[in-house]
Amino acid sequence: MTEKLTKHDMVEDDFDLANFLPFLLNQAAEESSLTFQDVYKNRYGMLRTEWRVLFHLGMYGRMTAKEIGARAKIHKTKVSRAVQRLAERRFITRTRDSRDRRSEHLELTAAGEAAYRDLRGVAKEYDRKLARHFTSGEVALLRSMLRQLAGIR
After folding, report:
1. For the chain, which domains are there?
2. Is residue 44 a contact partner of residue 114, using CB atoms and an 8 Å limit?
3. Residue 1 above 60 pLDDT?
4. How many Å apart are CA 105 and CA 103, to the nearest integer?
5. Distance between CA atoms of 66 and 89, rounded to whole angstroms?
6. What is residue 150's predicted lDDT score, i.e. its pLDDT?
7. Per-residue pLDDT, 31
8. What are the pLDDT digits (tens) for 100-129?
9. Which end of the chain is less packed: N or C, by CB atoms within 10 Å?
């Protein structure tokens, strides 16, 4: 009994997924974030969006969820869920804006600040570890190219 070939089986495909930039960027991002993900997940029970919200508040201070979403390029529903979880765990406070009742100002609590400082130290060391794969010139070029692709100047 012979197996029937489909049209797709017979067409030679010249698309090289392994060299497709979005695919490579995604693979590199996933692979490079796994070790750091273990830290924030195991130490604090956080998900990716939660640590990103925590870091934005740690770096920039008081912000609204809308500001965090715009700066971090995270969808508003994901930011909202992360804010809810961080507030439940007492890492952030939420204060209603007196002029716009739909908006809340978010700030780190002492526990949130401590978690941020701890994770910031781990992130810095992990960044140094990743950078050791390259020369200093390659690291500078890679950071520059990634910022350009991400629209960050």
Report:
1. 35-150 (1.10.10.10)
2. no
3. no
4. 7
5. 21
6. 87
7. 92
8. 778 899 999 999 999 999 999 999 999 999
9. N
pLDDT band at 140 (very low <50, low <70, confident <90, very high): very high
d(CA 121, CA 113): 12
| Residue type at 138 in one-letter notation | E
Total residue length of the chain: 153
Kindly give the residue spans of alpha helices, DSSP state H, lying in 45-135.
Answer: 48-60, 65-72, 76-88, 110-131
Do residues 72 and 84 lie in contact, with contact meaning Cβ atoms separated by under 8 Å? no
Cα 95 from Cα 104, distance rounded (Å): 5
Position 101 scores a pLDDT of 75
Distance CA 43, CA 115 (A): 9
Structure tokens at 85: 């979880």
How would you classify the pairing of strands 92-96 and 104-108?
antiparallel
Q: Indicate whether 11 pLDDT > 70.
A: no
Whether 89 contacts 40, CB under 8 Å: no
Lookup: tokens for 118? 């701890």
Tell me the C-alpha distance between 58 and 106, whole Å.
11
What is the C-alpha to C-alpha distance for residues 46 and 82, in angstroms, rounded to an integer? 9
